[in-house]
Amino acid sequence: MNNHIIKGGHLSAQPMGALRDYVAVDPKTERTAVVNFPVCRDNIYKIDVEGTKKLIDEYRPELIIFGKSMVLHREPVAEIRAFVDAQNIPTTIMYDMAHVLGLIGDHFQNPFADGAEIVTGSTHKTFFGPQRGVIGVNYQREDLKWGLWEAIESRTFPGSVSNHHLGTQLGMLMAAYEMNHFRMPIRAPSSPMQSTSPARSRRRASMCRAIPPSTTPKRIRSLSPLATAPAPRCRPSGSRRTTSL
Fold this sequence. Notes:
Structural class: alpha/beta
Largest sheet: 6 strands, mixed
Strand content: 5-15%
Oligomer: single chain
Shape: globular
Number of strands: 8
Helix content: 10-25%
Distance between the termini: 29 Å
Number of helices: 6
């Protein structure tokens, strides 16, 4: 289940994108086994939560992908997590925060706290800096889905990329330092579109503080080169692992 591209969804989360080789196709109709989130009648960029619950109960999707390229509202991660748990529906909830990664936490939305298991994102949008990618999961080694994390690790490196690109390592490190150094308390807007550029910059600066330790991902694979550089304060620490490519 995903957001339709015409209603704000990511291109990469479509059957013609990253899902191309990973979703079933009906041999007769050639339709892919993908169901789109229903949307509100008066706002095609906002998910209809009750309608979504009905579709999930009917189709029982194995993977639910939140996140959009056209972001106007928070995604109803907590509501859907509560529903699938109550109905005992086996599914994996993912949030692609590519466009709002720099707003993660109290400023916009904390998907791990809401119940997402996998969070992906880009580091050159609201999380400014060189073009990088981040994959985080909320699994422990004893969890049933730990094998999924191991598959993500191995298919990322050496499966998809061969090194951690030293040429942009320093830029990514300095971006993280800058966000930590210039953090300041501000009132977050109800939508990421309701702020001016200076306000967005301030939100980026305080992004790292906004993630409570109890809700940071247990495992992070960073496609940015943070892991091999001196650690800024926003890096996971302790039992949380960061690897880089």
